[in-house]
Task: structure prediction
Amino acid sequence: MYKYFATGDVYKGSFEHDQRNGYGVTTYRNNDLYIGEYADDLIQGKGKFTNSEGPYYDGEWLKGIHHGKGKQLYVNEDVYEGDYVNGIR
Result:
């Protein structure tokens, strides 16, 4: 199932109670991409967010924030792999 947002973002995936739940893919208007799990319309669980310019975060999420184990590739190509708590490594 697809959902088109007024912002220009497009979601393809599972819904429950008219919210993103389960596995899905969001393509953002600026060509950023998220592939992974959702809960109660928020990025939550395991997933990969890729910036349109290449950097990415691949790992665990909690309410849309990096939380748990993850790997971050930065614009300058530095890499961090480890734990995040509420978006902080």
Residues 2-84 form a domain with the Histone H3 K4-specific methyltransferase SET7/9 N-terminal domain fold (CATH 2.20.110.10).
